[in-house]
Structure formats: structure tokens, C-alpha cells
Amino acid sequence: MNFSLRQKNLRLQLGESEIDALLVSHLPNIRYLCGFTGSAGFLLVSEREKVFFTDSRYRKQAQEQVKGAKVIIARNAVLKAVGDWIRDRRRRWKLGIEAEHLTVAERKRLLEFLPSGLRLRTAPPLVERARMVKDIEELRLIRSAVQLGAALFDRALEVIKPGVKEVEVAAEMEYEARRGGAEGMSFPTIIASGARSALPHGRASEQCIAPGGFVVCDFGVILAGYCSDQTRTVWVGLELEKARSAYYAVKAAQEAAIAAVRPGITVGDVDSAARKVLAKSGFGRYFTHSTGHGVGLEIHEPPRVAAAQTEVLKPGMVITIEPGIYFPGEWGIRIEDMVAVTDGGCEVLTPTGKDFVAV
Amino acid sequence: MNFSLRQKNLRLQLGESEIDALLVSHLPNIRYLCGFTGSAGFLLVSEREKVFFTDSRYRKQAQEQVKGAKVIIARNAVLKAVGDWIRDRRRRWKLGIEAEHLTVAERKRLLEFLPSGLRLRTAPPLVERARMVKDIEELRLIRSAVQLGAALFDRALEVIKPGVKEVEVAAEMEYEARRGGAEGMSFPTIIASGARSALPHGRASEQCIAPGGFVVCDFGVILAGYCSDQTRTVWVGLELEKARSAYYAVKAAQEAAIAAVRPGITVGDVDSAARKVLAKSGFGRYFTHSTGHGVGLEIHEPPRVAAAQTEVLKPGMVITIEPGIYFPGEWGIRIEDMVAVTDGGCEVLTPTGKDFVAV
Predict the structure, then answer these.
(1) Within a domain: residue A357?
(2) The model's pTM
(3) Is the pLDDT of residue A15 over 90?
């Protein structure tokens, strides 16, 4: 990873944002900027300095992983080490904080440790914005994660049948993920059968799959730090014409949104491309969530692909396209791929077919 | 779960804490108080009212799960619904917030939505303190989680041998967990072999287990919402006397700390019981972390079992006892059980033996 370029880009933006330094506290942002993958630390970036603070548990790991920043191991609280470092150097900064991630208590402790001449400012989401556009190495890692993730659905299809518990399907998929090298799942695996398929967040439960219903499978892996995210919905039992036609309405909406993805279009317009198709089919009011979200080091990251959002797509952005319709108490359908925005349109990363499948 | 008792206890404490109402934002606290297991929501508790706010994704789940509180589904931002509710009722509260969990940005949004007569106060950790002492039903669930967790180590012993990758061991354990009904792992499984065993947080990697070293296995499951946490360290290859004696020093320290656990003692004294034994064996300076932590709905929760901590143990508290020693670049050893404080001392929940095992 080109950490020095990422750090340089951030430092260039500090001036434009009217802050002298940024205290990066969100761990995925820290990983993006300097490579540290541990669970505790702060990265301080000013125009001239880059310092990473952590505690003694991470001494060795920080020394090995952190690129382009001085490593300081805190003797006491890590935020105290940050405050002491700034105080010793008599900086009179406007110090940016990541308000969406720093807790109220952390901010208070930080203020106690900081010299009085220093002011805190809510920084714009500089690192999140940079992370939206993936570089070539990130795209390579994301492709690998998506490929591994897709293999889990092949395994699911071998397992899904009437009488099998949802959690048993999840168990087989997660085992496949681990054996394929995944560090873990990118979120709790959703296997939602029967009426549970109408829950957009129906984590795998002890419920047995029964004939005559959909099974929504929404799952993803973390591989080398990057997340995959995919949804397929399969029918169990004798095919119903009503289910089949609803399925193809969702598929058409999903494909319309994918067809809309290209540089220069807003994410709101991608969302409405899916929404229009479902409205025409009479399913508009059953599509109760947004069309997608960015994916990368985090399973949910900017941009939100949702109604009226004005973010403009750029080459290198990676988003999900996942319309769904839900009939509470009956069934639900969702189809989700990951796509990467290219110069001319987009590349669908998810290799799995989308035809109606009955098992 | 006796949610009404928990809510009543909290309401009794509001007055003593000089706040009129508490806005509970930490999800495990929300689950503890009203049963909601979703990933977005706020619970507002005043002396007379209990209201749970969430978004439309969780409409059905909230209606089914939330006990003892009115459910409000926000049309826009959930914090706006909270603010509107308070504003409509013209409350002039001192409103407590959970400063360790609420982000700086959430606090700012909340202030925008709240009426001007309302003041925010950092609340003491009322719910965390209540959660430290587990009731009978919680202890039953924790015992089940610990039993399932312990079965994973039996599986690990079948798999660990030279040439097997650390992640392969983790894959088999996690598969066993899922098949046993676990919702997931309570933290990323640590399988740390060879020199990696000297990393206190050595997540399972692609490294192959080699003869002549320790393998630290630190793992836990989530079952019905409650976490387990256990560590065992096994030797691979021909037994070395030096390794064996170091192992038994850690075991003696761990057992000394367990022997110290009883109502009325401070967690600091439990910590020093372990530390003294390792100091006597000459390993004191290699024991670089604290002795343990509380476990329940979260894998790490109060109390911290660490040097100089003054929290006094009470019956119903559940903590880990996990001393370890680490020789960077060489090897490490950690042994961890979960124990529940009883009226007369403690009950060791973890059933797994602790004798030196060479595979």
C-alpha cells in the first residue's frame, strides 16, 4: 500500500480544512493511513509530523506495521501521551478531531491533557473521503474478497433444503470462508427463511427452512482487511408464479441500478434507477431501504447509495447495489452485487448468477 | 429476563445521580434494559417514562423484543425523534448521556434537536454497574456459553499438530461453535504458535504450527447474547523442562488468583495474588497485562481485574482470570478461566483441565 501518498494527500488537505493537525482515532482510517491493524491507537498528522500512539500490548505490532509515522508507546493512557507530546512541543494548533468516531468522554480526557492554547475543531471526513476511491492495490484485494465470498454461496446451495436450520447453513458458509483464508465475516451472516426473509436484517436463527418460501442469504468475508458483501435469494419447494415474477422485478431493478453506475452520476440517481423499476412493477412501497453503500476496509462506508444523496461517482469507488422488497409476515427478496466504478461505467465484481433458483 | 426490575433499579438511581432522565445509547445496555438486540436505537428512561426509539428497519423486531418501553419508529434521524419527543413534552430535564459511548457528533446532533431549556450531563455508568452483578438467569446463560466454548478446545486438541496452519485450527473451532448454536465468536480467535505465542493478541494467522513451541489458544463464543472467554496453552513437540516449569508457574499464579476470589476482596488484590506468584518464580516482569476483566453481554466489561483497581467483588460478578508471561521472539503462555463470585468464594465456570499438555 502506498501509505506515503495517502499521508501526503491528507497533509495537503489539512490547510484547506482550516485545521493544523488531525487526530485520527477511527481504526480503519488509521489502518488506511499507516497500516496498523491493532485495536487501540491514535495517529496524529500535522503538516510536518506524523506520530502514532499506542499502548505496550501493541509495541511489537506497531513497530512492524506502522509505515511513515513515528511510534510512541504510551506509559499510561494513550490520550495522555498524545496530550503530552503536543504540550512538550508547545503547539498552538487548531486540532481536528473525528467527531463521528471520538466519544464524548475521549474528547473530555483529551481536553484535560492538552495545553490550554490548543483548540479542538470537528474535522471534515477527510480520510473517509479519500478512502471512497480505491487504488489499484485495494481493488485487487477487494476482488479477492468478493471471489472468496461468492464461493460461500455455492456452498450454501449445497446445504439449503427443507429441514435444515438457518444457522447450519451459516455454519457451513463460515467454515468455507475460514478455510479459504478469511480473517472473519464482514458482518453476522443473514440466512432468513420463510417469513423471516421479510426481515431486512434476519440473522441466521435456529429456525428450520421450510418448503414454499424464499431464503435470503446476505453474507461477506474479510480477506486481507477488505470486506465483501453479497446477497442471493433462493426459493425452496414448488415454484410459485407470484414468487418468480416478484423475484424478476427485483432482478430488473438491480440490473437497472447497475446499468446506471458510471462516473459523473450521483448516487441518488443510481438509487432512483432501482426504485423506478420497482415502482413500475407495483412493488415500490415494499422497497424500504436504500440501494447500497460503499465497501472497503469497512463493510459500510461512504458513499450511501440512497434517495436524494448527491455524492458523485468517480472511477475507483466500490459500492453495493442491493434493492429488496419485503412483505411482512410473508416473504422477502434481495439481490446484491458489489460493483467498481470504472472510467467508462462499472465492473460487476460479484461473479454469481442471478437467475431464479428453486431448490 | 426481569426487564422490569432492571428498569426500576435504574429509575431509582436517576435521582441519586442528579439527572432527571438517561439517554441509553450503548447497545448492550439497551439489550440489558429492554431486550432489543438490533444495531440501532436509543432508550430514554426518566422516573416516569421509558421510550425506545429506532428506525423503520427494526419496526417488527422492536415490537417483538422491546419489553417495558413504548416503541417509537423514527421517520428521519433517530436522534431527531428523541429530540422531538422531549420537545413536545416540554421537559426541562438534566438529561444524562453515556459519554463513554456517545460520539461527539451524536452529542452535537442531539443538542440541535433538543429544546433549549434542557441540559446534558455526563451520567455515571449506572447500567454498566448494574450489569456487573449477574442474576440467576444470566448466570445460566453464561454457563451454557462457557460449556460450548470449552468444547472448542477439545476440537482444537484434535487438530493442532506440526504443519497445520493457525487459521485452520481456528476454522475448525469456529465451525464447532456454530454447529453448537453460537451466534458468533466473542472476539477474533487467537491461535498463536511459535514466536507468535509471545504476542498477547496473536490472531490466528497463515503461519504453520512448528514443533518445539507453545500454541496459545484464546477463544470464546456468543450464545444467546452472552460471551465466553477461555485460554489454554499447549506445547507442540518434544517436551522441554524449561517450558514445562514456566507453564506451571503460570498455572500456579492463575490458581492463586482464583483462590483469592471472594466477596469483599478488591479486584486489585486478585490481580496481585497472581502477580506475587509470578514474581516469586522470577517471571514477574514478563506478566505484562492485567489479570482479567468482567464478561457478560460484552466480552470486555467492568470490572477490570488489574493492579490498584479498587472495585470490590460481589456475588454474581463474573470475571476472567488470565495471567500470562511472554518472552518476545521466543514464546508465551497464558491460562484463562471464567469464574463467578459466589457467597462463599467463587465457582470456576470453565471445565477444561489445566495440566501441561504436549501434542
Answers:
(1) no
(2) 0.93
(3) no
